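Dear Dr. H.,

I hope your travels went smoothly. While you were away I took the liberty of generating a structure for the chain from your last submission, since the lab meeting agenda had it listed for discussion. I wanted you to have the full record in hand beforehand rather than looking at slides cold. The sequence, exactly as received, is reproduced here:
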Amino acid sequence: MPEDALKAAAEGIWPEGHASSGGAAGKLAPASANISSELLPPRQPGGPEEIVPMSRLRQTIARRLKEAQNTAAMLTTFNDVDMSAVMALRKSHQDAFVKKYGIKLGFMSFFAKACIAALQELPAVNAEIYGNDLIYKNYYNIGVAVGTENGLVVPVIRDADRMGFAQIESNIADFGQRARDGKLSMAEMSGGTFTISNGGIYGSMLSTPILNQPQSAILGMHRIEDRPVAVNGEVVIRPMMYLALSYDHRIIDGREAVTFLVKVKKNIEDPSRMLFEV
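The corresponding predicted structure, in token form, is as follows:
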């Protein structure tokens, strides 16, 4: 990550003076807000240990995640989704897609499209609290969580609703590579309205993702595994994925959260809905 971006992340400063959490100065509390090890009681190690100071970036990540828990009325709703249709569509068009666009068709672009369609129908999921006001955002900047050696970063695909599958996949691939190389700027990691996190690439079956404040919701994807399900009164094996939507109950009612996740499920199970915008 560039030095200016690392410094800004460590100090909690966001572009244009906008703090990630409240405060007139445009910054969060200092990264040293955690209790110093020198002030803690002596430890009694149970065996060999190695003490490694937390980096300023890691301290900032820890602080922001804890602030999200302390600030939002956060809870999670779950559903599962049959990935058969998307997997079949992806398989049948993968070669032509790669030949034309020079990039593979992944699952993330389908979920980005599915989420955007649901966000357009349920604006509270694309909103944030600002003082005593609710800000409903009529644009769709989708954050994509990327794990790196230095910690989790969330680059933002701006105006993702105006992009096709190839543009979204290209952005994801570019962000992922530059995140791992430490070459993302702070501007590229700010301004998101909704975040998607895919723990499935690490083998996660189920999780409760933490909000990326000041956003009001985050979708967690998980690994695909064959499971028995009932279809038309018969038990069949289908590739299934659990979905988790964590949301801020101060903004989003349970009905809206469940409806949002059901719409995402329907869009994924019938991807023609997204292709034909029906």
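Two observations you may find useful: Residues 84-101 form the longest helix (18 residues). Confidence is low (pLDDT under 50) at residues 1-33.

With kind regards,
E. W.
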